[in-house]
Design brief:
Layout: E1 2-11, E2 18-28, E3 33-37, H1 44-51, E4 59-64, E5 68-73, E6 76-81, E7 88-89, H2 92-100, E8 102-106, H3 117-122, H4 132-145, H5 161-172, E9 179-183, H6 191-208, E10 211-216, H7 219-225, E11 228-233, E12 236-242, H8 243-248, H9 253-263, H10 267-273, E13 284-290, H11 299-307, E14 310-321, E15 324-334, H12 337-349, E16 352-358
Parallel strand pairs: 3-10, 3-11, 8-9, 9-10
Antiparallel strand pairs: 1-2, 1-4, 4-5, 5-6, 6-7, 11-12, 13-15, 13-16, 14-15
Helix pairs in contact: 4-5, 5-6, 11-12
The structure holds adenosine-5'-diphosphate and magnesium ion (MG).
């Protein structure tokens, strides 16, 4: 388990200070794939770097199972062992212990270009008391894990982006960390490579019970492998929850925007902006979200029959999210004012989330 409590961080610069994190609280259970999503500059990288203390928070505490707690008070960092006991000044030795349990991968892989795949992966195994033979065996084992054995003697320049990220993953896992921190690991990859890396991360999560904290600016990535998600904006976590819950019932404007972009429902804004003739009507424009409890019902034809209104579908999307169906529809409801209102009430009573975009 990882628990971040009241983490704050301001970058001090001569011209202006930047508040990167303000009172951030996050709890990641062991074995989870935990997504942190937000636009560029939201504070995601700063937050994940606070977990392994690559970035030192100004205040707050970080508790990690099997390690203990680091707390920053008045600019000083203290370490308390898991067993409790005296808290002491944080030392490099504590940080070394902490980082042994935390692997990290990055958007641009951070491989050593002059070293072969073998040497890149062997690097963190040096100075761990292992013999040459043990290191060789471990590197080959890691290459099998990421399915890249045939590239053992290749140089990074000879690899595709996806293959480079596999090398980086193998290197990050060399010393058997329990947690992998991933900062935009698929953001530089094409869609196919992205999919294969996400699949690999999910496999590693299952096979090794690896906890993964995954930072991304793409909701599609969250959808594909995360169990929970935190949405960040301006240094704050503004929304947090189970992935299906967040996608089926987003609360904050920024979360709605992310969700609508990834489902395609956001395209309605373009139609509105461009004064599309499709919307040239005085019908009521609504967005409906059908979740587990409502998706199976033929509600659209049901309401048109029941209330004698016209329901005209503008956009539609149904997907499986973590094994459960999630549907979105943007529709125009035309008919007497009272009936339109009755339709919306009826849908809401049947577990459909209805948002009125324009009254018509
Ligand atoms: N080393 C730094 N010095 C000054 N400001 C920084 C530094 N690193 C990040 N920032 C600023 O902190 C904010 C959060 O950045 P970051 O954590 O990288 O966000 P994200 O990863 O979500 O894009 C941004 O405004 C960024 O410009
Ligand atoms: Mg970042």
């Amino acid at each position: 388990m990882i628990e971040l409590s009241h983490i704050s961080k301001t970058y001090i610069a001569p011209d202006k200070n930047v508040v990167a994190l303000e009172d951030v609280n996050i709890r990641v259970e062991a074995g989870q794939v935990y997504g942190i999503v937000g636009y560029s500059g939201a504070g995601k990288s700063t937050l994940v770097r606070c977990i392994n203390f690559l970035e030192r928070p100004d205040a707050g505490s970080i508790r990690i199972d099997g390690f203990g707690t680091i707390e920053v008070r008045d600019g000083n960092a203290f370490y308390t062992p898991e067993s409790g006991g005296q808290s002491v000044r944080l030392t490099e030795k504590h940080l070394k212990t902490l980082r042994r349990d935390l692997g990290m991968i990055f958007q641009h892989f951070n491989l050593l270009d002059r070293d072969t795949v073998f040497d890149n992966i062997a690097y963190p195994l040096k100075y761990t008391g292992r013999s040459k033979e043990e290191i060789r065996a471990r590197v080959l084992e890691l290459l099998d894990l990421v399915d890249l054995r045939d590239k053992v003697n290749a140089y990074p320049s000879e690899l595709s982006g996806g293959q480079k990220q596999r090398v980086a993953i193998a290197r990050a896992l060399a010393n058997n960390p329990k947690i992998l921190l991933s900062d935009e690991a698929t953001s530089a990859l094409d869609p196919d490579a992205t999919e294969s890396i996400l699949k690999l991360l999910k496999d590693l999560n299952r096979k090794l019970n690896l906890t993964i904290v995954l930072i991304t600016h793409e909701m599609a990535v969250v959808k594909s492998i995360c169990d929970r998600v935190a949405v960040m904006e301006d240094g704050h976590v503004v929304e947090e929850g189970d992935v299906y819950e967040v996608f089926s019932n987003p609360q904050q404007p920024i979360t709605k925007k992310f969700v609508n972009t990834s489902s395609g429902m956001g395209q309605i804004n373009r139609l509105i902006r461009e004064n599309s003739s499709v919307l040239d009507t005085d019908a009521t424009l609504v967005q409906c979200t059908f979740s587990k409890d409502s998706v199976g019902e033929a509600l659209v034809s049901d309401v048109s029959r029941r209330f004698g209104v016209n329901v005209n579908i503008i956009l539609g999307n149904v997907e499986l999210l973590r094994g459960n169906p999630l549907g979105g529809l943007v529709v125009l409801i035309d008919g007497e004012e009272e009936k339109r209102r009755a339709v919306i009430e009826y849908l809401r009573a049947h577990d459909v989330r209805v948002e009125v975009i324009a009254r018509g």
